[in-house]
Records
---
Amino acid sequence: MAKETGIVSWKELALGCTLTEPGTAAQLKTGDWRSKRPVTNYELCNKCGQCYIFCPDMVYSRTAEGYYEANYYYCKGCGICARECPKDAIQMVEEEN
Amino acid sequence: MGKRVGMEVSIAAAEVVGLCDVDVIAAYPITPQTHIVEHLSELVAEGHLDAEFVPVESEHSAMSTCVGAAAAGARTFTSTSSQGYALMAEICYIASSLRLPIVMAVANRALSAPINIWNDHADMMMARDTGWIQTVAENGQEVVDLLLHAYRVAEDHRVLLPVTVNLDGFTLSHMIEPIWLPDKEEVDRYLPPYKPKLRLDPRNPMTFGPVGMPEVYTEAKKAQDEAMNGALPVIVEAWKEFEKLFGRAYHPVETYKADDADLLLLTVGSVSETAMTAVDKMRAEGKKVGLVHLRLWRPFPAKELVDILKQAKAVAVVDRAMAFSTRSGPLCVEVKAALFDHGISSYVQNFIAGLGGRDVTVEDFEQMAAKTSDALAKGLPMTYEIVNARE
């Protein structure tokens, strides 16, 4: 939990707030303050990968079938993917809670 | 065996830093500090010292270079004064927050404007909250001793904080004084090699200085505050060890003829020796006046100071910098706060003296003592005065 949120006791911080191992940002849950989430309509999607290219948080990954799937653990709901999608396949849907 | 030399204090400071096997020196010249790093550059250029001397383009870069080098595990040194210190301040905060044991000598000088190259404590007080340990020398020998002590304290794994040794510009930096300079063997006996706890190494990648979100920043500052408080006993321990090896004793708060004093003068830096002469004179006249002089400015030794000050009927605090609009100098603000915290309501008068190189004489100290005694006797309110300001 601590690593998902960065919330730790001052006693647990490494000397000088140093990050003592690489790649720890991947553990940090950045998708916890989204107000809207992108939802892809795979009937319209042509697998162009524009959402994957434009996403500033590297939320999208390619599936075995060649579609692109969002990982909501990281998605901040910025809506860039929905705006850039040439097929209007991505809709921003209100988060309920 | 060390040797007794007649040497300019700045040169002696450079010599002892050289004896400490410093790896990286990054500095920019500024009066009155220049002789320190100038001599270090000579030691490196002439092959007496195996170190990197980085002649940077500003003090901001000097401290940045020290931060990078210290993070990579090097023993580092720089030196500055006044305007250079102000320019460096941004990175000073980063050095302490990253817990890098950089050592710096500051030849204390007034801050502009009007531009003034002479000695006061404006720069020392400006850097008060940068999170550095700060000691203060009163003569050349103490500059040498405190620099050696600085590395030992800074690099102690219970501390890991940068240390500034303050020495009064010109009054100390440019004086030729008799100084016991230790030899390499003596220095090595006191100062173990630097073993970083964490360091930048491509084989074991780490991130120094990541962003601290609101969820983390408060805890980071709490940890730093605890480190600073925890440094005090280590500083004292390192002075005790120093005394064992070199025979010279240092304490966070030092005194001169203070035991039975009704009135205590409180000073910082080289004026303390002038104040001692004034105390001798007043004692000869039967006045029970003593001196308290602060050796350690950060961490602030509040309890040690209060324990001594509370014994006197009145205290005259001598500041050498301004804290505009607080009706006090920066030292006196903290002295009053420390007394209040400990439930002591001493009678405190504040004198701001020796600004921008104005001499503080024996007679000035006599007057401060007389004014304080007189004000106490008449029951006048506690106040502050900028000494010898012409009307």
---
Amino acid sequence: MTDVLKAPAPASAPASRRGTDARTARRRAALEWVAIHSLGVAAALFFVLPFVFVLLTSLMSDNQALTRSLWPHPFEWHNYVTVFHTAGFLTWWKNSLVYAVSGTVLTVVSSVPVAYALAKFRFRGRNTALMLVVATMMLPPQVVIVPMYLFWANQMHLTGTLWPLIIPMAFGDAFTVFLLRQFLVTIPNEYVDAARVDGCGELRTLLRVILPMARPAIAAVALFQFFSCWNDYFGPQIYASENPAAWTLSYGLETFKGAHQTSWNLTMAATMLVMAPVIIVFFFAQKAFVEGVTLTGVKG
Amino acid sequence: MAAQTTGARTRPGRGRAPDAPPADHARRGGRGLGARSAPYLLILPACVATIALLGYPLVRNVIISFQDLNAFQLIQHTTQWTGFSNYTDQLSSSTFWHTVLRSVLFTLANVALIMAAGTAVGLLLNRLGKRMRLVLQLGLVLAWAMPVVAGTTVYQWLFDSQYGVVNWFLAKLDWHSMAGYNWFGHQFSTFSVITLMIVWQSVPFVALNLYAGLTTISAELFEAARMDGAGAWRTFGSVTFPILKPFFLGTTFLEVIWVFKAFTQVYALNAGGPEGSTETLPVYAFIEGVGNQHYGMGAAISTLTIVILLALMSYYFRIMLKQEDDL
């Protein structure tokens, strides 16, 4: 932690260039290189070590997981098979996938028009709408959970399914709208005007002109949404917990943990299996992700 | 997959926009969409849904907060109005004010650490060699991609009193009293673990973003600053920060929201314990309302939480509105 915080300190070295002695300068540069790269190693370790521990522990035998030694001997690949055969694990996986994929598609499709309207139109009530978006973003879901739960349970009779989680996604998500709008604002208005002059309706302008330009941002918010659905713990806990057939991985992992209290090796193998899809998606889409986030975040 | 067939498309149209300008006789759909009604039509479905899924619960929440609604009344289907007594109970209880103070301090400390560490790592990324940068980026991505529940499990295990790596390591360093230390038995140590975890999870977003932002600043600016003899701090203060100010403002805002809202981390790690001493406002509202089935009281806490949040965010609202007017 402290290593990370100290990061910028050694950077003060390069400044004085006036030193005429070339050797001193070179030595200084070399020292600086070493300092910066040691910090880099320290920071990388800080972020990666928990993950490494998880991986190693997930491959240990039951007995070894309770000892201090860190390197698995022998490698117990069977742990993963055991986890897979846990009652319900595949169902949790399927539910998470359904929730994350449909949630992502619905959110993106429904949020784009809202973001477009808030970015490219001036109209009465726009500031109010913007405030509403930001206020929605801020609201902790816990504070409306009682009436929300009563609504889905008594009026809709949908608790114990994934529907209370998925249906709201079809009407836009505040965070997605916010990020997309930040990006769309940076697209010069001339493009929109030109399209209108050419006789494009608003919908055509949005689909043909704006969407292709906004592809990186859309990729980024889609990934964000996928992760947040996949990782969502509170929603499934509230709406799906009463019916094990509707549990998602994140909620299932908690119960798994409870059922295997001292079997850290199995818990960690389960953790790896929860993480795997997210990491795979992330690696395939990393470039688009960082690109899109940059565009939405920096030039806001 | 059946889920995807629900009204996925948000079709503009259907019903009138709430306060559309009266002079406008816009046609719906396709080409003829009047430019003036278009924005209203585009945001209409989201507005309706927000009112239904958020406005309604908020109103109900306020109504419930004036009732004495516990498990007993819920089963009996009786309504007992108590006026402001839930509010006066909370506002005069030291537990509530301690929780408020704790939430605010918790948010401030975490956001400060996240922004400082994130900025440091972002700047570091910019200075590393290509290969080392890739390694660090990989580490950041792994930390970022780890689901919160999984991350919580990992940190519970790392800090486990008997089998945890941390205690083992501290004991190795000859700090033997730490061998069986119970990190989750005290307020400060629990908060330390939560904070470490949240910082660990949040820094990648800030760092990767900042690095990406840094790459958009032309190298000549940094060169010029160096020529003028500016050190690293000066360069950051007079080149990097001013250029990336929108980034810092926006990111800080998002982090404040995320940390204040952090529920899974606090709740799953130690359920607000020991003895409620690490409950933040969302956790407190949840445990009091849903956990202890004091729905009326929980609703009052929720309403107060919203008021506090709005007060904390009013400054940002002002900045944002000013920016909008400049657009």
---
Amino acid sequence: MAYDKFTILKSTAVPLAIENVDTDQLIPARFLKATERVGFGDNLFRDWRYNPDNTPKKDFVLNDPTYSGKILIGGKNFGSGSSREHAAWAIYDYGFRCVVSSFFADIFRNNCLNIGVLPVQVSAVFAEKIFHAIASDPKAELEVNLANQSITLLSTGEQEKFEISSYKKDNMINGFDDIDYLQNIKSEIKEFAENLPL
Amino acid sequence: MSNTLFDKVWDTHVIRKIEGGPDVLFIDRHLIHEVTSPVAFLGLKSRGIKVLYPERTFATADHNTPTINQHLPVADPLSANQLKALESNSNEYGISHWGLGHQKNGIVHVVGPEYGITQPGATIVCGDSHTSTHGAFGAIAFGIGTSEVEMVLASQCIMQPKPQKMRINVTGKLGFGVTPKDVALFIISQLTTSGATGYFVEYAGEVFESMTMEGRMTVCNLSIEMGARGGMIAPDETTISYVKGREFSPEGEAWEKALAYYKTLKTDADAVFDKEYTFDGSKIEPMITYGTNPGMGMGISNNIPDAEDVQGGITTYEKSLNYMGFHEGEAMLGKPVDFVFIGSCTNGRIEDFRAFASIVKGKQKAPNVTAWLVPGSHIVEAQIKQEGLLDIFNEAGFVLRQPGCSACLAMNDDKIPAGKYAVSTSNRNFEGRQGPGSRTMLASPLVAAAAAVTGKVTDPRDLIEELV
Ligand code: SF4
């Protein structure tokens, strides 16, 4: 699925200082019945965001107008659990383009990269600094520069580098995906398949 | 050069290595279900691409299916629509489709092995994180997202960097009443839910060598719960005799060729792992979880640990205990139980129902407990009947439902109500996983059975008269 190119993102961030945020929280299973990729943002963090009678829960950060932005900063081990890509779709559809955490679950990280959400893994210390900066000023901005692989806390100028493979980086900067690549090597794939043990 | 089992299978399937990027990995078998495939097919359509090898993909409906009255039309229009989409997409692209009511229908990770789709040394993917189950056969099997489902349909490949390698050895013999589920929950409690992130695990040692295939599947199934990409066990005689003669297993000359390949599938003696753990199997107790992730497990006779003794944030820990309505230092034994669920791709196989029967036989279901017994497939269902387990269940006041994922993820009507406590043999105790507000305690089929007849958390060893 095509997505918007990612180059430099300058934005405020929404803080969610909870560890082990699992994909069942990001999008509960009962919202996985769609056959098209539409409307998942409305149900992002559904059960943390809304009471059973569908009124918003006042104390949840997405319902607090103080915080907004295209970056979500979460606690350690973000995105654990189910492989549902719907979790990443919900994040994208809600309006986030980047998730920052000191540690990501594997499948979730892959899913994000495949749909144009940039997972930025920072040190625990830097994550703390971001949380701290937002706590003292909710309008504190971050700049994520994909080409330089850097994330900067603009209020203090503090910066950290993050890892991403050069292949995925090029993909995201250009809005390409893996299928584009694989379609180009189809004959090589077919030849390989002839000689497999199974 | 010395290689691990994982290296051997991975390297055999690498078509290309991209510098500064992932490997292009060929996928032997692809399993799909109704929830994570529709958008992948839409993607194929919009790109105008065909499925490259339809004969390597198998579709079954399981996540969203009812577990009673399967002969009737599915009542929920959204679920019905999703099931229909799986059927029409499979038909359009020439993929075998085992829909609701089909004799081969069942949970994707239960039917795959039953029909021999799962083979030692294969690469297997599915848009479900518990695809790690198939690693029990010495396959590299892992869960993927929908974009990757589309990739596999289009090209039979995925693009991922090679993970690091971890070996977990469990030595000795398991104690009385201790099952493969307990071994897995124990390991996760030691490593935490992120302790194996970035790794592919090989399980080794006497405990796994003497396990049945069903038990090995339970262990590998739960690999994802400690963050691992997957887990695998080297194939041996147990594996080969399970695989031989199944419908999709190789036959004749192809079988001989496959067998020669299977025999190469073991870690060389001097191969090196990036990380290695060793545990003493004889020290493991029946386990139960007390919190809202599978790493929050403990021996059933212990008390809930204090926040100070637990790794991770105290706020997260408190949030978790609050959700469960539990407190630090409390005993789990004796806690009231409202629901018992036996089933899922973790513990929905025949051996699990035998274990459950061994406890409930001659007893009665506790009046305060609602129990859902859900076989993983029609084969399991038929075995339950043939072996007389159904009679045992019925006499003890239990009914058997029809195959499916059921309360494992509560996408269908099998939802644990808000605030209620469930002892579940499934794999996730996340907030709301088994229904909004549900409170899940993960455990083995023996612990589930003990709870079902006593109505509270009970050590199954107190109910088994004879050593097994
Ligand atoms: S039983 Fe649960 S974990 Fe297994 S395939 Fe179904 S939903 Fe996934």
---
Amino acid sequence: MRVGVTGITSDLGRGLLPLLEADSRVERITGFDVAEAPGGLSKLETVSLDLTRPGSDDELTAALKAARVDALMHLAFVNSRVHGAAFAHELEVIGSMHVLAAAQATGLRRLVVPSWTALYGARRNGPALYTEDQPLLGAGVRFVTDRVEVERQVESFAERNPATHVVVLRFAPIVGPNADNPITRLLRTRFVPTVLGFDPLWQVIDERDAARALHLALDCRAAGPFNIVCEDPLPFSVLVQLSGGRAVPMPGPVLRSTIRLLETTGVASVPVPLLDFLRYSWLGDGTRAARELKFRPNFPAATAVGGLR
Amino acid sequence: MARKVLGNDPFRRGAADRPDAPEAPKPAAPPGKQPRPVTPELQVPRAPKLTPMPEAQRRAPVAHAGSPKVKGESTDPKAIPVPPPRAPVAPRPVKPSAAKPRAHAGAPSVPFEPVPHASAPSATPIGSAPRPHPGSPSVPFEATPHDGTPAATPIGSAPRPHAGSPSVPFEPATHPGAPEVPFEAVPHPSAPTASPARPPFRPSPPVYVPPAADALPRERALAPTPPATVSGAIKGLWRALRTASGLPTRATEVDAWGKDAELARLLRPLGEVLYEKYWRVHTEGVEHVPRGPCLLVANHAGALPLDGPVLHLALKRERPELADARWLLEDQVFHAPFVGLLANRLGAVRASPENALKLLSEGRPVIVFPEGFHGLSKSFSERYQLRRFGRGGYLKIAIRAGVPVVPVAIVGGEESMPLLAKVPGSFLGVEYLPVTLPPLPARWFLRFAPPIDFAGAPAVPEDDLAWIERTNVAVRDQIEAMLGALLAQRPKVF
């Protein structure tokens, strides 16, 4: 099996490559990235590719055809701190558009795309456990809205190209020593503001489990979206405590006006809708992944979050 | 005439003011079976059945009922509390067999003659039949003045509307689960709830096949409940306070529904004391709750909904073999700061069809309050007047999940936490802030009816919306009748 991976230097890419290297079924790994590839992997051959550039879909198509790639892992997403939302949008939404165009042009057999359970949104009227058929109504944050856009593209691609096996993995916030995403940055701060009188349930997933789920998606029979979550949700305050921080409950109105003030003065940019994630639970139902992907997390949430710092 | 379901309520002058029209007995049938004419609005008073009392008779009890009733407490410590005498009501031909036992009802030592009319249960309307004869002076009530009786302080003695509000007479015949057995004043765990006096309920066909034992949710093995000590209670309350504020509590045993098993374990002894000694909860008919998933449908009451936890604890105590029940809570409370969070950690789940179906698929009993927020937000003067039962969503869920519905009447919640006033609370994201008292020691009575047989129900609930509406009204009527009977038999509020 020849596997293509876009974004080999992303968090998920770095976790996945050793698993692919160790997998005897994988003959060759073709990595696409703009950055320097990690060394020490014998199966890996890298192609320099900037997905934000117009015309990158043609380059990708040519590379996929040349390497005769069977399955493509599209992991080129921005999770680290970005200074330009426009760049992140270009890479995530437009880059995915290029990838889908190339996948269609080459008649790709399998496409795996990571996503977030946060896309369901933390909603007042949401169910206690979001199953995969729930609508993606997350909004208000670029981090979420761009990925919702990506999922819409992928979904319509899957409808129009039934020959391609499309798997979408909706991860709970990925935590671990190497993970760098908005959630880990929040949990790594010393004092974490919470909303007084609210304590929603959160899920996290260890980065090793996340990489393992990606690896499982390489040859699973089932297609479509899967929630990849830990089995034991934790109250957010407990999550903060276990990660070594300190939860500071603040009255909701105070927190809201503080955030607005920070945003107006330009000190920090934290959108107010993000507060919903600190008020309402947003849990993904992991039973489909357990049943059809045979994925069960190895690391409980407490262990996963304990390795944050 | 107001809906007279208040029974022996010291807050209410003229408590016994209820529709007295003797009703024609109806053939007993489960509510779902017998299609009744669907009224366009759900709460339309069944006007033809009402016979307004003459004004003089209606006024008479007002002077009578208020004074001796609240003080009626025997000095004999061993004596069981005495039911207050029913205020005289309209003279009416009463069957001797039914009237006679009740005439003795005031005798101090035998407060509730068990089964006075069990032989002909359906012939006597619950709310109206067994009353002392109006002229009978034989209400040997020991009017021992009792200063400490909290009932003597009329908290919310607002005059109740006498006319205008719909009055739904009880229809005992249509409700097989309607109580015939007056409960003992002394709560007894093994109360004779399954006494042979109960009319033989037509056993419903097995609507539900309980799953195998391993299919039931696995409860985590927990340390045994700590003994009830003051320090333990303080510890539990402290943890509850921290939990409600959203402070970390090392709560690593929270399940996907938000229940914190450790918090529940710490608060259990305190809950038991409240249950046994403070609220003196009396349950009746708990054996009707089937094994496996079912929907318990109850009336909703109180400024802060205590009925969910109390009903939950009742199931835990009386039916420990059942899977851990959860109760559904409306958004207005569930998303309220502090209160909603604490309720969630104790076992409340946000009321939504998805959640209910998922809970049922786990094999749990699910407690629903179809009145929703309307049940909570009614003022104390409207206590025990049932609101509309939503749109019958619980019936659709029951049919879809293939589980039985168990109607439950809860008395005591309204007086435990009376809603005295509402303060605007939009700054906290709630509709209003309830003004209430700390939980008062009102007696609680829970009555469980036999599960409703859903034979004849549409396979898909949306196929027969009229059936849903009809059955919804019937279930509501049944709970209303049970409430009325409980209130009439309630010895004292406090």
